[in-house]
Design goal:
Shape: rod-shaped
Structural class: mainly alpha
Largest sheet: none
Order of helices and strands: HHH
Helix content: 55-70%
Distance between the termini: 67 Å
Length: 81
């Protein structure tokens, strides 16, 4: 049975080779993060926007959407920092 002895010596080498190859296939330790840009609005546009928001009827859906948008802008700023 010399073939059985030969395959028993090859088995540990195959295991070591397999472990060595899988060690090279790790994920990067620092994934890249892409943050979207934050739109910049001039003071004239901000004043106009504030006036329009104040004229909204109480409980307007746009008010909630604007609050969500403000929160999103804060999150993007934190992402960029």
């Amino acid at each position: 049975m010399p073939k059985a002895g030969c395959s028993m010596r090859v088995l540990p080498l195959l295991v070591i080779a397999t472990l060595s190859l899988t060690a090279c296939a790790t994920a990067p330790s620092r994934p890249s993060i892409v943050c979207p840009p934050v739109a910049v609005y001039g003071s004239a546009f901000q004043s106009r926007l504030a006036d329009e928001i104040q004229r909204l009827p109480p409980g307007a859906a746009l008010e909630r959407a604007m609050l969500d948008y403000a929160r999103l802008r804060d999150q993007v700023r934190a992402c960029l920092a």
